[in-house]
Model the fold of this input.
Amino acid sequence: MRTESNADENSPVGLIEEIAPRSPWRVTDVEALPEFRLRVTFADGLIGIVDMTQLVHSPNAGVFAALLDPSLFAQATIEYGAVTWPGELDLAPDAMLAAIREHGVWSL
Done:
């Protein structure tokens, strides 16, 4: 019979690293570049460019037309492995990864 307890023994803290998702499509870093481009890094180490120039200037840009504001475009960040902006704008990281793997650039 044990007389002492070890709180760390049953702590989930040590397990977090082991069970954290490691999906290769997850974006781990994003940098807004001039001319409506982004440099993105994925969980698997792949780095590529997302070129949104045509999309944001298109009459069919829809909600993405808001990104014509350079100060808003520069606010690109990562949430749950996806590139996002204020206003609930985001990009599909799995489609981004597939295009960058094939072409080095994802042009929207």
